[in-house]
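Support reply, case 0932

Customer input (verbatim):
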Amino acid sequence: MNGASGPITQLATHNDLVRRTEQWRAGARLPLDAVIVPASRPAWNLDQAITLARASHCALLILCSHKAKPAEVHELLADRDFNDAIVVDLPAGYGHKLFDFRALDSLKVDLPAACSYYSSNLSMKRNVGLVVARMLGWRRIFFLDDDIRDINPADAHGTVTMLGSCRTAGMRVTRFPDNSVACHAHRMTGGLQDVFVTGAALAVNCQQNIGFFPDIYNEDWLFFYDDAAHGQLGSSGRIVTQLRYDPFDDPRRAAWQEFGDVLAEGLYALLGRGLGFKHATREYWNDFLYARHTFLQAIRERPEMAALEIRERLLRSVELAQKCSVGISPEVLERYIRLWRQDLHEWRRRLAGVSQVRSPDAALRALELARSTGSRAIDAARPGPAAEKVRTTLPFSTPDYYDVFWSGASQHSEPTPRWERRGARNGRGAPPARPGSADVQAGGVPAPARRGFRNQDRVYAPTEASPGRAASRALM
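Our regenerated output:
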């Protein structure tokens, strides 16, 4: 790879790092072995995952915590007459030696205090899903967050089929855009802002040399970093919807995200210059932190571009992000990369030693977990899925910025044309924001959603056989 010249900046898009739809083999279809959902919302949010698993004739692994109650999940599964599901109630504070990332844990005391504003088990759920897949011989899995809507099974299958040439492949989450608070603020004040492949709708080839999800914001970008670096990350270009929330309802979210956002944006900016993580030195981070400060300050200098009703909260969020950014040292960023690579090497060694087992129950026992039977009574004081009103998807009303980038726009942040700006604001008179994700908690109570800090039928050729199919059928 050739290094690029010019000033170091935060890029507005990373779409040059992904493979495109046109690289699918015409008429091919690779089977999907399992849909894996890190569930945190009430059970009715799992309808999309059930529909996808049924259409794919595959297993469904649901890892529950927070508002996702196993008894209610089983009730929903019975209502939908779906049997191929493994439901697990992940205990609070769950840990296992396979998920012991000691190198990164040693750095936590040196991270900005804002990194402890929220606690999340999203990374743990996804890592559990990866190990269960390896134990059961599942070749291809699809991670699907429970706030994703409008997922067309045919489009998901097309994304999975990209695993024939890619190690990971994702779908586009543009409605509501999947960005950090800072990037939402950039867009809403007139900046051109892309979205990137996300762990919220991601196909993974589990027989490859895969990474892990670190316990930090933008954990998915670190998970598929090596794939992006080696041209093994695919983007099918298919669109799904994420449930709307207010990214500025709690300014602390922007501060909580800042370290992970700087880390991921800095690493991928290096890839955009043709350089890998070994070039992420303290000198580089010093330059990138200055670029990040310039990026955030530019947002604060054009508040009049944002809708009046969000302006004050937007500015407060960016202000807290700046305060956190000032406390991030180039040395800590450099150390994080080194320790992450140490843990990644150890993770891959452990994963290579994982043996296949005959049943999901055996896999869960090996991880000191157990399948939920659904026998626990539902709390009478809390309405069940049937009693709760299912909210409709509230798609974001901006133009599709992702299409702007794929049509050849500049990679660097530029002012948005006037015709795009009006749509880029969080529309006046918009419906009330939905409550945030329970996957992230602050002070023991549900905190705002992690997203933004984190839904045509086709004719396919005959499918290939999958060695994991037998294991996925041994579910009952």
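We compared this against your earlier run and they match. Two observations from our side: The longest helix spans residues 330-352. The chain has a mean pLDDT of 82. Please reopen the case if you see a mismatch on your end.
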